[in-house]
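Anyone have tokens for LacI family transcriptional regulator? Sequence:
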Amino acid sequence: MVAITIKDVAALAGVSVATASRVLSGSPATSPAARAGVAAAAAQLDYRPNAQARALRSTHTESIGLLVSDVRNPFFADLAHTVEQAALAAGYVTLLGNANERKEQQDRYLDTLISRRVDGIVVAPLGDGSGSIRSLIERKIPTVFVDRTVDGLDVPSVTTDSETGIRQAVAHLAAAGHTRIGYISGPQAISTGRDRFAAFTRAVAEFGLSQDPDLVYFGDFQAASGSAGVHALLELRQPPTALLAADSPMAVGAIAILHKRGLRIGRDVALIAFDDIEWFALLDPALSVISHSVEDMGRIAVKMLLEVIGGGTPESVVLPSELIIRASSSAPISGVPDSPAAVSPASGPSPRKN
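Reply: yep, here.
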């Protein structure tokens, strides 16, 4: 197929290439007859301007990049949809990349987005801020961090206050009589992995629960590590009676291995997941979750990025989290009666407003 060029449009319209270029770029310095002729020729030839060539002559490409850490994670899939729709409403198209929780893949996508001259980038960062993340900052490319941050980098971000929801979850499990809670943590090289683990550690200490280090399994925010975590925790001499998974893919892996072992979720072992995926409420039993709004996160991230593109310096935003109790954790532990002294999730601090 032969590519149609601006020369073809100019020839059909009977004008110079320079005139055709001015018409197609929206310049008012053209006659009505020239504008009508070029528009008709472009429509007849189905001509599409070369976006990359236009970008070389302009400071804007009307495109943004979005780099998520794992496109298979339902949370990031929902985030991508929200960002794409919000950007489109503002006149921008979105180029999507998937880091797959690997720094080298993150760097490759960021390098590509930089070379495509996107107007700005929303990224859920991995690592310590070296490599292509550092390049973004040094090149002064408008950037907003979403869900995660990098220590030492002054980049506007939209994140979640994990503390409140995790404290509510631990309080809820303590009220049901659980003293040994197994925690499937995210990696400590990622801010959300560190923050959620620290929140869990503080909560179990606050409510006087077991702080046995063997009750923590460090995963990688992917499903296989959720399965591996449950297997390791249930093999302990004193296994936990409740489990808390630090993200939704690890919760999915946990559910799979519990079913494989014939354990009844909500009866033999309680389970709570961080992230409220739509179909978690449809499981039998429905899964208790620590919820935070991915829709708000995506919309705010785009709003902030557009502000940075426009030369602004928006303040970072921290969104609230909260426990939603469902059947997977609502039954008291076997043999432990309800206690009037039990702590209810509502006794924790209310989610922080921003």
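Residues 6-49 form a domain with the 434 Repressor (Amino-terminal Domain) fold (CATH 1.10.260.40).
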